[in-house]
Design a protein that fits this description.
Elements (H helix, E strand, L loop, with lengths): L1 E9 L2 E6 L5 E6 L5 H13 L3 H9 L14 H7 L18 E7 L2 E13 L9 E2 L5 E2 L2 E12 L7 E10 L10 E2 L9 E4 L9 H8 L3 H12 L5 E8 L9 E7 L4 E3 L5 H15 L4 E4 L11 H15 L2 E6 L2 H13 L6 E6 L8 E5 L3 H7 L6
Parallel strand pairs: 3-16, 3-17, 11-15, 15-16
Antiparallel strand pairs: 1-2, 1-4, 4-5, 5-8, 6-7, 8-9, 9-10, 12-13, 13-14, 17-18
Length: 380
C-alpha cells in the first residue's frame, strides 16, 4: 500500500504531496484544479516507465467519446504534454522539463524521473509519413522518452538505480524495438485507472464477467445493480455464435420479465458498476485510481457504492484513490464511512481551495466534515 506520494513536477503540478494515505483516499477540488493530473501522476509513477501503461493513462482523457482524436502526431502529443513545458509556447515546444515523482510503498522509497524530447522518424522506416505541400514525404514527429527508477530500502542509506528504460513513440504506435530495459525492474504495484467515461468504450467489463466464478461476489453486484434498476435479477457471459475458433462474447443482463439485454446498450450507472468490479479484480493487492467517482451514479446510490467499494477493496487488499467535484458525493461517502465506523480508513485531500493550483490540504477522521464546509459551493 502507498503510504505517501510526492509530485515534484507533472503537467502543471509542482510540489504536491499526499501524506498518510489510507485505504480510501478522496481528492476534492474545483474544475481544473489538478485532481485528474494527480491521479495520472500516481498511475505514471506506478507504471515505472512501461510504455504501454503510460500510453494507456494518457489516452484516458479522450475516453468520453468513442471517436479517436488521432491527428498525425496524436499519441506522441498526448504523452509529451504530461511533461512540464515552457509557458511561453504552445505548439512544437521542446519539453525540456522532467517528470519527477517519489513515493513510499511498504516502507520502500522509489523515485521515478522521466525526460522527453522531440524526435523525427525516417519516412522510409515510418509507413505513416505524410505528404507535404510539395508532394514529398516528410518524417512524422514523434518523441523519445527515458525513465530512471531509483529505490531506497530500509536497509540502505542511498537511492540505488534499479531500472533505466527508454522508448520511442511515433504517430500512432510504440516502436517495439526501441523499448529497452537496462536493469531488471522490481515487481510493480498492480494498478487500474478509471476515467469518468471509460466504461463507454472499454471491454474490461466483458472480460470480468467471463472470468467471474464467485457466486457471492456475483450476488453482491446484482444487489448493487438493483439499486439502479430493480428489474435486474442476473447477468452472465454469452459467447458469440458462429465460427468455433472465435473467442468473442458479450456480457448480458437478465431482467425479472425474462428479457436478456446486452450490457453495452444499458445506461452509464449499470456499466460503471461492472467497470468498477473489473478494476477491483485486476488491481488486487494494488491500487485503484478512480477519476470522478460519482460519474454515472445518482447521488442516492453513492452511499451503497462507497460501502460496496470499501468492502471489496478490503477483501482484495486494494487501496483506492479517487477524485470528486460533487459536494453531494463527498457528503454521501463521509456519512457512509461514519455509519459503518470506517472514518479512520477514509482520508480527504482538498486541492486548489486557496485558488493556488496544486496546493493540497489534508483531512483525517472527523475533520472530513470540515472538508464539506470548507468547499462550501456546488461544484458539479
Amino acid at each position: 500500500m502507498l503510504q505517501r506520494f510526492e509530485i515534484e513536477s507533472f503537467r502543471k503540478l509542482e510540489s504536491v504531496s499526499l501524506e498518510e494515505l489510507a485505504e480510501f483516499n478522496l481528492i476534492v477540488g474545483r474544475n481544473n484544479s489538478g485532481k485528474t493530473s494527480i491521479l495520472e501522476a500516481v498511475a505514471v509513477g506506478l507504471a515505472m516507465g512501461e510504455a504501454r501503461e503510460i500510453l494507456s493513462v494518457a489516452r484516458k482523457r479522450d475516453s468520453r467519446s468513442n471517436v479517436v482524436l488521432a491527428g498525425p502526431s496524436y499519441l506522441s502529443d498526448i504523452v509529451s504534454w504530461m511533461f512540464p513545458a515552457p509557458s511561453t509556447s504552445f505548439w512544437d515546444v521542446n519539453f525540456d522539463g522532467s517528470i519527477k515523482l517519489k513515493y513510499t510503498a511498504d516502507d520502500c522509497e522509489l523515485k521515478v524521473e522521466m525526460s522527453c524530447r522531440r524526435a523525427f522518424f525516417d519516412p522510409s522506416e515510418e509507413p505513416r509519413s505524410r505528404l507535404d505541400s510539395a508532394n514529398k514525404f516528410e518524417p512524422l514527429r514523434g518523441i523519445e522518452v527515458a525513465t530512471v527508477v531509483q529505490e531506497r530500502t530500509p536497509s540502505s542509506v542511498d537511492f540505488l538505480e534499479i531500472a533505466n528504460m527508454e522508448f520511442s513513440l511515433g504517430a500512432r504506435s510504440v516502436d517495439r524495438e526501441s523499448i529497452t530495459t537496462r536493469h531488471q525492474i522490481k515487481q510493480r504495484i498492480p494498478f487500474e485507472y478509471i476515467s469518468p467515461y471509460s466504461h463507454r468504450n472499454s471491454n474490461s467489463s466483458e472480460s470480468f464477467v467471463r472470468r467471474l466464478q464467485d457466486e457471492n461476489e456475483k450476488h453482491e453486484i446484482v444487489e448493487l445493480l438493483r439499486g439502479i434498476d430493480e428489474d435486474i435479477v442476473d447477468f452472465f457471459y454469452e459467447p458469440f455464435l458462429g465460427n468455433h475458433r472465435s473467442r468473442g462474447g458479450r456480457a448480458v443482463i437478465k431482467t425479472r420479465a425474462g428479457k436478456y439485454i446486452p450490457l453495452s446498450v444499458l445506461g452509464d450507472g449499470v456499466r460503471r458498476v461492472f467497470e468498477l468490479g473489473a478494476a477491483l479484480h485486476y488491481s488486487r493487492n494494488g491500487v485503484l485510481l478512480v477519476d470522478e467517482i460519482e460519474a454515472g451514479f445518482h447521488v442516492g446510490m453513492l452511499g451503497d457504492v462507497y460501502r460496496w467499494l470499501t468492502s471489496k477493496a478490503s477483501q482484495n487488499d486494494v487501496q483506492i484513490i479517487a477524485s470528486s467535484h460533487s459536494l453531494e458525493a463527498i457528503q454521501a461517502m463521509v456519512e457512509a464511512a461514519a455509519i459503518s465506523s470506517k472514518s479512520e480508513t477514509l482520508r480527504g485531500f482538498s486541492i486548489g481551495l486557496d485558488r493556488k493550483f496544486g496546493k493540497v490540504r489534508h483531512y483525517f477522521g472527523k475533520e472530513l466534515y470540515s472538508l464539506i464546509s470548507d468547499n462550501g459551493l456546488d461544484i458539479r
